[in-house]
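name: query_chain
kind: protein
chains: 1
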Amino acid sequence: MTSFWNAFAKPANTLAPQESDGALHLHRLTNVALLEIKGPDAVKFMQGQFTCDIQEITISHSSLAACCTPKGRMVALFRIAQAKPDCYLLRLPVEVAQSFLAHLNKYKVFYKCTVTLLEDWGVIGLSGDLDSLPSLSSAVPTSADSCQTSDGLLLIRPPGNLSRMECWLDSAQASKLLPDLDNQCAAGAVEDWERLEVLSGLGEVYPQTLDEFIPQMLNLQALGAISFKKGCYTGQEIVARMQYLGTLKKRMFLLSSETITPAPGSAIIDETGARIGSVVRSAQGQTLAVLDKSAADGKVLRLEESPTTALQVLELPYAIEEVSNTKKKL
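structure:
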């Protein structure tokens, strides 16, 4: 947790959580952090490290993106947005923020830019009927990945069919906005927001799964997080070969896990006890897991840690174009 939450962790209201689907909830996302990359070489540096096309990131358009090893395995998955010219913010799990900061600092030696963990910024999530927010309704972005940017405040619409929005804000903006938002919204738990993320089919990379997945395994090609037209970046050869020459044998599925919330990296097994995949993230009985595609088709799936719990495959909220080429299997 960054120092931002020392001042803003407690809601200013006592509204009870609401049960209706349209009820507004404010989620203090103490589980994420923001990195800042800024300087005249920021775009050039990031273009050589990240899977998305940085040239397409503007003050009105954000993107999911990944950073990979030379072998194409992800060391971080994050959302990136532009705060101002030559200044970009990356939102990612707080558990990997420091390791990713160290990773980026190894590569930026020859670039005129800085990479910093922002201690005076935080992220809140708003879910429910966003049009009923008097203080922000005119600024609510309406399409996936779009954003509204002002000094010290970024409003970002995540992909998916659920009505929700991320607010990235500094301490000054938090002092202005949070009291009113607390009075307009019921308090929502981090776990509730995590469930919305899972239901939206949005994966994540945690310390338990560092260097485990290539981007296509987490369906990033379906979420606009990979550019196959930009120039080279670290891991690009592996990612491109998979898309054009390989056959993707594993990908991320949405599963119902009843009341079980397995940790990232937990094993998924079939009826014989053979491992066929691993958990990406999970919340409140909903789980995203990377599975062998053949094993996910009609077979009994279970958690190794709870073999009596059967997992059911659910439909993701987006279409996936299968990566399957006959020339070569990777």
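note: The chain has a mean pLDDT of 91.
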